[in-house]
């Protein structure tokens, strides 16, 4: 058994380093950008037809990706889009590399969930701070960057960190679209040595180790943002 473990663990770790972690990091980074844009669009106080359309699109996007299973989204992007033939643009359908399809799907899914987290964090800031900033003539962009977002960060860090940890675990679904990440490698090894319980337990342990390390990082970020918030409040007093 120990020989099997010694042979399997390096392969799983290599798959994690090559695919699982990079896909999670890239997808989360893109998802955060999407989430911030979506959240700011939904809380915008501006008026107009274009703004109303943008808010509607943002709300529909959040509803769609929060209301459908991630696995189904992966299948639509990877297996479904190749059948979407658009003459003159995509005459043979939209065929994506598995890694690209995975990153696109994970980014959009993460963006939808994180958008609600960021929106709630921004709305949690007292409206008097917005009014005070506008009263001294600060533009909205500067108010967000210098006053609102830094304070909202303290509220958003825990749920955003949880979203990233969940994303790392969700990357196991990438095995369904042929990406050789940790879980698929464990499946391949199990098919060779006929030890499914051992292999799946090993990969579960590896995911647990990664997520535990990320949880430590989450606690560190919470302490850092808490100190920033405390300093900000002291300055205001």
Automatic annotation (TrEMBL):
Occurrences of domain ABC transmembrane type-1 (ranges): 17-215
Main subcellular localisation: membrane
Signal sequence region: none
Domain of life: Bacteria
Annotated SUPFAM superfamilies: MetI-like
Pfam family, one: BPD_transp_1
InterPro entries: AA_ABC_transptr_permease_3TM, ArtM/GltK/GlnP/TcyL/YhdX-like, MetI-like, MetI-like_sf
Membrane topology label: Multi-pass membrane protein
GO biological process: amino acid transport
GO CC aspect terms: plasma membrane
Residue intervals passing through the bilayer: 20-41, 48-64, 70-90, 197-217
Compartment list: Cell membrane
Stated family: Belongs to the binding-protein-dependent transport system permease family.
Name of the protein in its database record: Amino acid ABC transporter permease
The organism's taxonomic lineage, starting at the top: Bacteria, Bacillati, Bacillota, Bacilli, Lactobacillales
């Amino acid at each position: 058994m120990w020989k099997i473990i010694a042979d399997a663990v390096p392969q799983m770790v290599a798959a994690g380093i090559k695919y699982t972690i990079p896909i999670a990091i890239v997808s989360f980074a893109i998802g955060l950008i999407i989430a911030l844009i979506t959240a700011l669009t939904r809380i915008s106080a501006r008026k107009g037809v274009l703004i109303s359309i943008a808010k509607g699109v943002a709300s529909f996007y959040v509803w769609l990706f929060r209301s459908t299973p991630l696995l189904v989204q992966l299948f639509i992007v990877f297996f479904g889009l190749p059948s979407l033939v658009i003459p003159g643009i995509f005459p043979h359908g939209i065929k994506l590399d598995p890694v690209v399809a995975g990153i696109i799907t994970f980014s959009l899914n993460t963006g939808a969930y994180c958008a609600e987290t960021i929106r709630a964090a921004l709305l949690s800031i007292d409206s008097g701070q917005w009014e005070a900033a506008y009263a001294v003539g600060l533009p909205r962009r500067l108010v967000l960057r210098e006053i609102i977002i830094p304070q909202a960060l303290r509220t958003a860090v825990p749920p955003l960190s949880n979203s990233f940890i969940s994303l790392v675990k969700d990357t196991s679904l990438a095995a369904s679209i042929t990406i050789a990440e940790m879980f698929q490698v464990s499946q391949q090894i199990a098919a060779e040595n006929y030890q499914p319980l051992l292999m799946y337990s090993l990969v579960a342990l590896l995911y647990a180790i990664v997520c535990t390390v990320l949880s430590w990082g989450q606690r560190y970020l919470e302490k850092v943002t808490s100190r920033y918030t405390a300093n900000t409040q002291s300055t205001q007093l």
